[in-house]
């Protein structure tokens, strides 16, 4: 390497004599051959490097498009539906932004749900607008969970009338139900023979 440097220096000196360079010009030429003595980058290049990058939206990759999906055990294939219960004036199951669950007669953004397969015959129910999962406690009370847990799993049962019943996978014998006033009923006080547990998935 030292020999290459000396050879490069002699070449630069010869070129300097042939072109009439002075000692100062030779020093500049030799400095360009020595690592660590490269010319400083131009102002345009430095400005591009110093320019702040646009902040990335937290929680989502930069190339993510469209509405976020429910993540039930990492499974895909969710269905966007409203669960209609034909009691009283008729109610759709809804998940409110504060995590409360109830019924609403009209089609609202809070009643738009994503039903995603968790395992064979078992689904999760996710409020698209509120971003809460429907969950059932050990006492049969429905609530909205910000995280997917065992209490968010429901067995989807097709009934003879073509409605579905949703039984807690964690607590068998407990079902999602709405009263004739559109309020939730405790899952341990109802059965799939009762109309309050019958839901029709529809858009």
From TrEMBL:
Residues 1-16, 56-71 have a biased composition (Low complexity). Its main location: secreted. GO terms for cellular component: extracellular region. Pfam families: FGF. It comes from the Eukaryota. GO terms for biological process: cartilage condensation; chondroblast differentiation; fibroblast growth factor receptor signaling pathway; mesenchymal cell proliferation; positive regulation of cell division; positive regulation of cell population proliferation; positive regulation of ERK1 and ERK2 cascade; regulation of endothelial cell chemotaxis to fibroblast growth factor. The keyword Chloroplast does not apply. It is found in: Secreted. GO terms for molecular function: growth factor activity. The keyword Signal applies. Belongs to the heparin-binding growth factors family. This is Fibroblast growth factor. It comes from Oryctolagus cuniculus.
């Amino acid at each position: 390497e030292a020999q290459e440097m000396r050879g490069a220096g002699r070449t630069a000196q010869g070129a300097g004599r042939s072109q009439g360079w002075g000692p100062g010009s030779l020093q500049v030429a030799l400095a360009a051959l020595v690592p660590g003595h490269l010319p400083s980058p131009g102002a345009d290049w430095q400005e591009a490097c110093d320019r702040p990058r646009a902040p990335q939206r937290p929680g989502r990759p930069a190339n993510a498009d469209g509405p976020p999906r429910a993540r039930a055990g990492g499974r895909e294939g969710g269905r966007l539906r409203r669960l209609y219960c034909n009691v009283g004036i008729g109610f759709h199951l809804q998940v409110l932004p504060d995590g409360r669950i109830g019924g609403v007669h009209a089609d609202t953004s809070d009643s738009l749900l994503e039903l995603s397969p968790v395992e064979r015959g078992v689904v999760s129910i996710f409020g698209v607008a509120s971003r809460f999962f429907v969950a059932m406690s050990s006492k049969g009370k429905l609530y909205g969970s910000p995280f997917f847990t065992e209490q968010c799993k429901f067995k989807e049962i097709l009934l003879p009338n073509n409605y579905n019943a949703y039984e807690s996978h964690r607590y068998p014998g407990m079902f999602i139900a709405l009263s004739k006033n559109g309020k939730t009923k405790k899952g341990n006080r109802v059965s799939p023979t009762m109309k309050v547990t019958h839901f029709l998935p529809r858009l």
